[in-house]
Specification:
The protein has about 55 residues and is mostly helical. It is about 75% helix and about 0% strand. The protein contains 3 helices and no strands. α2 packs antiparallel against α3. The longest helix is centred in the middle third of the chain and has 23 residues.
């Protein structure tokens, strides 16, 4: 998590393309985590993944 934080701090606030990529990647990670943890019953992780997608 600390390494991710360092990378996020390096992204300029006005670099919309970079932030869109960050959101897409976060959505993918949360989707995978959701399936592993929440199974067939989508829960909070799935909701956040959908919001970031």
């Amino acid at each position: 998590m600390a390494e991710i934080r360092v990378h996020l701090l390096a992204v300029p606030p006005d670099d919309h393309a970079a932030w869109a990529g960050v959101a897409r990647e976060a959505s993918e990670v949360l989707s995978i985590w959701s399936v592993a943890v929440e199974g067939a019953q989508p829960g909070p992780l799935a909701t956040v993944a959908d919001a970031l997608a």
